[in-house]
Amino acid sequence: xxxxxxxxxxxxxxxxxxxxxxxxxxxxxxxxxxxxxxxxxxxxxxxxxxxxxxxxxxxxxxxxxxxxxxxxxxxxxxxxxxxxxxxxxxxxxxxxxxxxxxxxxxxxxxxxxxxxxxxxxxxxxxxxxxxxxxxxxxxxxxxxxxxxxxxxxxxxxxxxxxxxxxxxxxxxxxxxxxxxxxxxxxxxxxxxxxxxxxxxxxxxxxxxxxxxxxxxxxxxxxxxxxxxxxxxxxxxxxxxxxxxxxxxxxxxxxxxxxxxxxxxxxxxxxxxxxxxxxxxxxxxxxxxxxxxxxxxxxxxxxxxxxxxxxxxxxxxxxxxxxxxxxxxxxxxxxxxxxxxxxxxxxxxxxxxxxxxxxxxxxxxxxxxxxxxxxxxxxxxxxxxxxxxxxxxxxxxxxxxxxxxxxxxxxxxxxxxxxxxxxxxxxxxxxxxxxxxxxxxxxxxxxxxxxxxxxxxxx
Length: 458
Hints:
- By secondary structure, the chain is α/β, with parallel strands linked by helices.
- The chain has 15 helices and 20 strands.
- The strands form five sheets. It has a seven-stranded mixed β-sheet, with helices on both faces. Strands 7-6-5-8-9-19 form a six-stranded mixed β-sheet, sandwiched between helices.
- Helix 2 runs antiparallel to helix 4 (77-101) and helix 2 (44-60) crosses helix 6 (164-177).
- The longest helix has 25 residues, at 77-101.
- The chain is globular and about 65 Å long.
């Protein structure tokens, strides 16, 4: 894949970039390695000052950055702007909370282990390689970079090849904010060159947000080098609607949960599992609201759904739907490629999806929703848990006992009750099964790339 900005609304190549040479990659690894002891020695207060300045820079540049997001991957401009501002908030969150998250913890009674004082403390580990996707080109990166740098680590970014302008901006953001030069560097390289970087002894750990195959490959390399890895991979999140739910509200939120960011989100609701007693009411409202979405130029403020980020992604989605329809699925709305320029796919609602169809188990990375009828809560749970993924989930019910039952039994990294899944700096984020290992965000996220060190004093 060429390192280039290709506008998904027009299909035109806006700008191409040369990959970094081996010598340039070596220089950037060396810069991150040299910056590490300087950043490690800086106080939390100094790091926080720099991190808050990075947040200010994002806010100052919000309109420019929102346009970069929209031009590079097609996200409607209002959502792109919100992504930049959310990223700034995430940096501020870690500036404010890193020191308390990483505070030493002492045993109340150290004599039980024969010590005068004993406990644990967190220490940074060094240079961390982040392999990041295009779908949230700033938020995905900065929710890693904020905690990593506040902990005293330095970072290397291998960004997706179709968002190079985002990568180039991020390459200098932390330098501009006052961090030691080289504390965060972007590598403009293809995926085929990641392995060499990860095997470099100066790189101590890695994190990837992306597809399951990419995660398996990176984890295999990291394992062979005995390096820590955090993976946030695919998802096919269930959105379960039960009879006691507010059906109107559930249907309204379902539209956003499936179609935000043009449906290209790992934590988007993708499988809508509806109790038979409210199936017709919910599905009718849901399909009606999906059909009313405005599809068009992502630079227009009123656009709800823009083009998919890549032509191959649009074609894959088209093939998944065609396979389902050929095997008996019913298209409630959408199901077509609009006759227009750009990599669009009509927001779609499908019914009667069955196990022999690709969509039953595969992740649909675009504005396509599958609706399933469940006879009772046990069948609903079986459908919800019946995939290899386990990223997040939503359950809609006003029965407190029923909500607790789903929270206890859902195989997912998160359960949202009467709301759509979203990532927040204040809450851990990650999945189970093929959706990944480890956690991002909150205290858990900053501790992933730290050495939890036991300290014992006689």
